[in-house]
Amino acid sequence: MPAKRDYYEVLGIRRDASNEEVKRAFRKLAFEYHPDHNRNGDAEEKFKEVNEAYQVLSDPDKRAAYDQFGHGGTDGFFGRGFEGFEFGGFGDIFDAFFGGATTTARRGPRRGSDLSYQTYITFEEAAFGCEKEISILRTEACATCQGTGSKPGSRATKCPSCNGAGQVRRVQQSIFGRFTNIATCPQCHGEGSIITDPCPHCRGTGKERRERRISVKIPAGVDNGTQVRLKGEGELGERGGPPGDLYVSLAVKPHELFVRDGDNVIYQLAINFAQAALGTEIEVPTLEGDTKLKLPAGSQTGDEFKLKHKGIPHLRGRGRGDQLVRLRVVTPKHLTKEQRRLFEKLSETMKPDRK
Question: Are strands 323-329 and 304-307 parallel, antiparallel or unpaired?
Fold first, then answer.
């Protein structure tokens, strides 16, 4: 076991140092090595060493014995080592370094929690907007007691422990002097009042779970995953705090004809060989009904035609996207005898285009 260092050396003071100098040196070193402040591996051991030195040099009788006999003169004081010290522990000392008081604020208003909900809408509803009615379960103020928690006709009483302050004060004496600890009242839990006759419906909580039907206005141009925020439609706040918000997440159902690409709508148009070769005018569906599209002769699979302003309205701004019509020339799988005869005759007159 390593030999103990000289107590005066531990505190960094002269042997004739005054009691005030001993105290100042101790405070400085205790702060430096306190385990709650210093995370180095040897900080706790140094902190114990500093405290042991202070316990001896701050007491006239112990200091006199130490000056005369050295560490052997203190064996009776520290027969069990550091466990013999007479202060309240690391926490009390460390608290004293930060103003001599610990305070706990009284519990104030707190905003309610937000809620989330998912609803499905059609492709057209996403494009042009709509109004949906949803049903949610949320916490609200008890309808029987109006959120007070007390039985109708009665009221909460002032907490006798804290006299309505929500806090209790405890004065403590430490080696650094007197300081005050202010903590949340354990009887009323910071409320300042106690419910003596609780509401039979909510059992004194002042809250209840209720199902609510809420109308949600969905703007034009939303997409899959868009969230609509309904301010104040979330959970009830506490102690007069505002309610939370409701976030409605939208899931858009796939369309049987259209695919969305940003604010554009893509439509695959199947045509036959004759329409592709000769060109034609054909009706194609859009989000607002059928419209005519003129195809030039010699159209090929993959050709794309634009129907301007037939797409999705812009969510944040004016205007809308386009509808893109992509051609797919379909090869017939089944031919009648007459169709086969005509194709064979046509084939004799045509040479393959090798370009």
Answer: antiparallel
Higher pLDDT, 306 or 47: 306
The tens digit of pLDDT for each residue in 183-227 reads 888 888 888 888 889 999 999 999 999 999 999 999 999 999 999
Answer for the pair 201, 142: CB distance below 8 angstroms, yes or no: yes
Euclidean distance between the first and the last CA atom of the chain, given in angstroms as a whole number: 97
Find all residues with CB under 8 Å of 288, minimum gap 6, and list them: 310
C-alpha atoms less than 13 angstroms from C-alpha of 251 in its C-beta half-sphere: 4
C-alpha angle 81/32/76, rounded to 5°?
Answer: 15
Distance CA 117, CA 136 (A): 8
Helix axes 19-33 and 90-97, enclosed angle (nearest 10):
100
Q: Which amino acid is at 78?
A: F
What's the pLDDT tens digit per position in 54-95?
999 998 888 888 888 787 766 555 543 333 333 334 444 444
Question: Running DSSP on this structure, what letter comes out for residue 3?
Answer: P
Is the pTM higher than 0.70? no
For residue 134, how many C-alpha atoms fall within 13 Å in the half-sphere facing its CB? Answer: 24
In whole angstroms, what is the distance from residue 174 CA to residue 170 CA? 13
C-alpha–C-alpha distance, residues 129 and 315, integer Å: 10
Q: Where on the phi/psi map is residue 246: left (φ > 0), alpha (ψ -120 to 50), or beta?
A: beta
| Chain center to CA of 18 | 56
